[in-house]
C-alpha cells in the first residue's frame, strides 16, 4: 500500500468516525435559537440530544451483525442515506417532538459510519499497524469536540440553526460519494452468518457473565455518563444562566474538551509505570471528589462562570483517565468475540449516557444544579460498582498500552 493510499484510507475512515461526534456537538450552540423557533425550552431541546444517544446505543448492537452478514459497504450506504434524509428532516421541523424523533433516526444512520470505520481498520490494515491507525483516528475524533461546537456557533450566528443540519447533510453526502467510489469492500458478505436473535443473544450473554467485563464496562459506563450530563446541560448553563453567546459557548466547549483529550494522553504516560487496574480506582475516586465538590458548590449558589468552567474541566480530566482504561479492561478477557464485547460495551456506555442526559433534561432549572447532581450521582454509582465488582474477579486480564489506546 502506497503512503498516499494509506493516508487517503485513514482520511475517509476518520471522517466516518467523526460523523457522530459532529452530529452531537455542532448543534449545541443553537439550543436557545431552536427553543425559541419551536416555542419550547432549552431543557426540552436537550431531549433531542438524549434521543440521539439512544439511537447510537441501539445502532451499536444493530450494525455489528449486519456488517458481518452483508459486508461493510451495503449497511454503510443504507446508514448514510438514512442520516442524510433525517438531517434534511431536522431543518424542516415545526415541533420539538418531530426533532426528537428525527434525531433518533439520524443517530441510527450515523452509527453505521462509526461501527463500520472501526471494523474496516481491522480489515484494511495489517494487525501490526492497527494501534497506529486507531491512534490517528482517535486524534481526528478528539479534534471534533473542539471544532464542531465552534463551527456550529458561527454558522448559527451567521445563518441560523437550520444551516447546521444543512451542513451535516452535505458532509454526509460527500462521505457517501467517497465511500462509493474510493473505499474498497473490505469484507466479503457471509451468508452463513445468522441474524436470528437466539445466537446473537447467546453471544452477548457469553460476554456479560465475565466478571471483568461487567465490572469495568458498567462502572465505566456510569463514570462516562457524566460527560453526557455535561453535554446535555451545558447549553442551558452557559447560554441561559451565564448569558454567553453561541460563539463564546463554542469556544468554552472547545477549551473544556482539552481536559478530556489531554488527560487521556497523560493516561498513556501513566501506563508506563502503572497498570490500568491501578489507574482506574484512583481516577474514579478523584472524579467522585470533584463531582461532589461541584454539586455542593452549585447547591450553595454556584461557582460563577469561571468557577463552573474550572470544575467541569477537572471532572473531564478525571474522565480522560477512567474511560480508556475501563474500556480496555472490559475487552481484555476476549479474543475471538472482541467485536461483540466492544459493541456491547458501547451500547452500555451510550445507553447509560442517554439516561444521564435525559435526567438533566427533566429539570427546567435556571442553575447548574441538575447537571452537577447527575454528574455526582453517576460518579458515585460507578465507584460503588467498581469496588464491589472487583471482588468477583478471580484473574485480571491486563491490556497492554496499545490496547488501551485502541479502546479509547
Question: How would you characterize the overall build of this protein?
Answer:
- The chain has helices at residues 3-25, 31-37, 42-45, 47-70, 73-90, 96-124, 130-159, 162-182, 197-208, 211-241, 246-270, 276-299, 304-331, 338-361, 369-389, 401-407.
- It is mainly alpha-helical and 408 residues long.
- The chain folds into two domains: 8-184, MFS general substrate transporter like domains (Growth Hormone, Chain: A); 196-408, Growth Hormone, Chain: A, CATH 1.20.1250.
- Helix 10 packs parallel to helix 14 (338-361) and helix 12 packs antiparallel against helix 13 (304-331).
- 52% of the residues are buried.
- It is a multi-pass membrane protein.
Key attributes of the depicted protein:
408 residues, mainly alpha, Growth Hormone, Chain: A, 80% helix, 0% strand, globular
Mean pLDDT across all amino acids? 86
Q: Write out the CATH superfamily name of the largest domain.
A: MFS general substrate transporter like domains
* Helix fraction bin: over 70%
What's the main sheet like?
none
Shape: globular
Helix-strand topology string: HHHHHHHHHHHHHHHH
> Number of helical runs?
16
Number of domains: 2
CATH class of the largest domain: Mainly Alpha
Amino acid at each position: 500500500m502506497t503512503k498516499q493510499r494509506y493516508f487517503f484510507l485513514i482520511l475517509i475512515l476518520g471522517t466516518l468516525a467523526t460523523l457522530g461526534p459532529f452530529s452531537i456537538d455542532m448543534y449545541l450552540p443553537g439550543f436557545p435559537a431552536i427553543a425559541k423557533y419551536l416555542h419550547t425550552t432549552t431543557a426540552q431541546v436537550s431531549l433531542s440530544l438524549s434521543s440521539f444517544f439512544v439511537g447510537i446505543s441501539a445502532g451499536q448492537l444493530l450494525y455489528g451483525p449486519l456488517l458481518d452478514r452483508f459486508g461493510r459497504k451495503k449497511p454503510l450506504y443504507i446508514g448514510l442515506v438514512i442520516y442524510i434524509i433525517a438531517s434534511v428532516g431536522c431543518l424542516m421541523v415545526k415541533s420539538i417532538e418531530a426533532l426528537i424523533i428525527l434525531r433518533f433516526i439520524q443517530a441510527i444512520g450515523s452509527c453505521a459510519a462509526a461501527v463500520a470505520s472501526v471494523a474496516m481498520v481491522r480489515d484494511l490494515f495489517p494487525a501490526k499497524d492497527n494501534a497506529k491507525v486507531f491512534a490517528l483516528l482517535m486524534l481526528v475524533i478528539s479534534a471534533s469536540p473542539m471544532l464542531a461546537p465552534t463551527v456550529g456557533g458561527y454558522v448559527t450566528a451567521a445563518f441560523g440553526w437550520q444551516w447546521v443540519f444543512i451542513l451535516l447533510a452535505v458532509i454526509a453526502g460527500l462521505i457517501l460519494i467517497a465511500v462509493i467510489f474510493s473505499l474498497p469492500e473490505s469484507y466479503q458478505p457471509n451468508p452463513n452468518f445468522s441474524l436470528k436473535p437466539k445466537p446473537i443473544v447467546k453471544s452477548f450473554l457469553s460476554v456479560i457473565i465475565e466478571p471483568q467485563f461487567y465490572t469495568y464496562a458498567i462502572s465505566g459506563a456510569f463514570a462516562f455518563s457524566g460527560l453526557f450530563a455535561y453535554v446535555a446541560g451545558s447549553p442551558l448553563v452557559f447560554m441561559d444562566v451565564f448569558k454567553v453567546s453561541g460563539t463564546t459557548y463554542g469556544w468554552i466547549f472547545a477549551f473544556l474538551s482539552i481536559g478530556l483529550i489531554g488527560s487521556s494522553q497523560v493516561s498513556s504516560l501513566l501506563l508506563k509505570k502503572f497498570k490500568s487496574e491501578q489507574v482506574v480506582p484512583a481516577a474514579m475516586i478523584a472524579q467522585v471528589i470533584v463531582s461532589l465538590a461541584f454539586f455542593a458548590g452549585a447547591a450553595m449558589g454556584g461557582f460563577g462562570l469561571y468557577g463552573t468552567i474550572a470544575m467541569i474541566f477537572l471532572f473531564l480530566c478525571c474522565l480522560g483517565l477512567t474511560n480508556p482504561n475501563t474500556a480496555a479492561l472490559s475487552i481484555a478477557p476476549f479474543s475471538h468475540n472482541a467485536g461483540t464485547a466492544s459493541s456491547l460495551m458501547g451500547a452500555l456506555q451510550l445507553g447509560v449516557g442517554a439516561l444521564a442526559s435525559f435526567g438533566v433534561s427533566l429539570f427546567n432549572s435556571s442553575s447548574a444544579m441538575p447537571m452537577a447532581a447527575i454528574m455526582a450521582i453517576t460518579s458515585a454509582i460507578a465507584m460503588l460498582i467498581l469496588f464491589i465488582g472487583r471482588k468477583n474477579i478471580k484473574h485480571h486480564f491486563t491490556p497492554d498500552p496499545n490496547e488501551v489506546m485502541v479502546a479509547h
